[in-house]
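Hey,

The postdoc asked me to send both predictions to you directly instead of through the lab channel. I've kept everything plain text so nothing gets mangled by the mail client. Protein one:
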Amino acid sequence: MQIPVIEAKGLARRYGSFTAVSDVSFRVEEGQTLILIGPSGCGKTTTLKMANRLITPSAGEVFVEGRNVRELPETVLRRRMGYVIQSIGLFPHYTVSQNIAVVPRLLNWPRARIRERVGALLEQLGLPPGQYADKYPHQLSGGQQQRVGIARALAAEPPIVLMDEPFGALDPLARQQIRRDFREIEELRSKTVIMVTHDIEEAFEMGSLICLLDKGAVQQLGRPEELLLSPANDFVQAFLAEKAAQLEFRAHSLADVFAQLEQGDGPQGPALEMPPDTPVLQALYLLARQGGQGAYGRTLHYGQWRWFTLEGLFGLFRQMLKRWND
């Protein structure tokens, strides 16, 4: 069996007679994003902080690439883990480039390498270096500050990135945009990410695995579609119920509904081609922007083309909604 990048076994944290976290276990492979979610006070942030020893577990172990974190010096461990928090925590007296370069400088990277790395990250995050490198945090919007915080977490090329409510302080529109930008960062596709959020839509949009906690205990751990279609208990179903129809659309891709799409190349005229892993909800959004009722899309899966219209996808939506309500 492949050694996971990060693994927790039986994590617990007690404060006197109060148990904040009880018997939490998970495995996260390279390139996966594990979302920790649940009601306020469920233990998700405590669990995240035990991963890099900001909080010491009362019981249980954490392993990074097969090594027990207790065996690693704290400075070595934390430099292998980028950390992004809601409050961002930029140094106000440092410029953008100086904030991003903090850890590489501690690691004694050559100046030229630091300069190249800072510039590359700013470009990836939509902050052109010529325009933003010499600005100070107070000169940036909240969304721009959060991008700088993400760049700082990635600067030293850590294999693991921990994120604690990273977009929680942003307004809804800024949150949606930065989530889209975050997913587009090429190097994040090889990173192992553990992220805390209270936003169920954010969890389903960004997570490859979701760990739903309540009162410090794992209620269900699995892929997004597993939580939606096979909830482990009444708590899981109730937690997801309000967003169920929309979330089921997020969890399903065009590949999942491929058999229900129309066969062939589609009607005459330009088609909006989408990869088979496009979420159904995103496909609807793209078709609506393309022209609504007159637009159609198509996807190639296992060498076969199928096509769909906005109305057809909405028909699938109604079927999903009926199945959930039944």
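Protein two:
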Amino acid sequence: MKFALRSLLLIKTMIVATVNNRIYEQIQIFLYLGRTFVTDKRTVFLHIGVFKTGSSALQVFFAKNQDTLAKHGVEYPGLSELNPARRGLVTSGNAPFIARSLMDEEKPFYLPDHEDEHLTAFRQHLQQTKTPNVLFSSEFFSYVPPAGFEKLKEIAESEGFTLKVLAYVREQASYLESLYIQRVKRGSVQDLPEVYIDQIVEDEQHLFYASLFESLADVIGQENLSIKAFVQKSLFSSTLSALGVKAGPEFNLPSSKVNVSLPLALVPLFVELNTLKPTQTFSDQIVRDYSKFLTSSEPEKRTLLSPEFTSKIRGIYAAENQRLSNEWFGGKAAFKYSERKYLSWEAAGHLLDAKTVAKIFGGLAIQHEVRLIRLEKAAMKLGELAGLEDGWATKIKVR
């Protein structure tokens, strides 16, 4: 053991004397991690989504396993607040501001006048990190044009890193239905599913996957793109593999679903509620109350899209998907089309019986009553601590 330590010190001394500071710094990083790496290459991984491919669940996984990932040589830096993700809440990853600052100006989430600020933070972190690999995640990167990736690549390479992109893809008809349901849940949609999807299909340009990844390949090289079909049950192990990490029991898997989709039984109800502009808290509480009555956690095997409409959507992307399969899936089909049973809008509207509706909204009313009582008690206690006279609350006039 002593001989081995002396040998290590001798080798280290020789390295200091004979190689430049950059290589020495990398060797110090490897020694810091307490493990041997077979290469001195360093990598910036960009997980870019796309949307509706389990990104929120992955970002919870990354945040919960920040220390474990670091032990495996992958840092997930907290460039944005990670605590919400550690609690299992929906976030946009650890790099949404970098991605949003690089979007084209017409994009709805574009962050103006902050590009230099966030690119500087990106560079500074690469200069300071002590791990060989760094992981940044945000679905907003799927909206970033090639010029934005060119800037990230230049910064990464100037700091001794290779830029690599990890992306998941989802069959477009399934994606668009999921996006519709999410936006219904968020209170922004009052249209029927096929009407709404017809309105937005041209806006979702990142669903032309082959074109998207070909433009990225022109910037960072096809060998630096890892494209995977979204499969929920293997999402975490597949992602770790792409990062060069072996899945093991030391990783903490999220204990519950993240960004739970709205059950089909509630979609017609929410479309009607959205005319009243409910708050997000109100909507989320309905979903939580309804989940108490579910007897099965099986994935939904029905669809609100008719077979004719589904075929129409698939036809729009057929040529793109063929190129995607040829270029990134070795000629094998990127997507397995599993036909789901069509549930008409009228049939979906009859899935809820009166008893279940009464329980959902009765539960909401009771919870709001409990909340009001708690607030009243807190207000009275504050009045007491402030030395206010008895009955002070009844004298307050509320307009």
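Summary for protein two, as requested: Residues 93 and 138 are 5 Å apart (CA to CA).

Thanks,
C.
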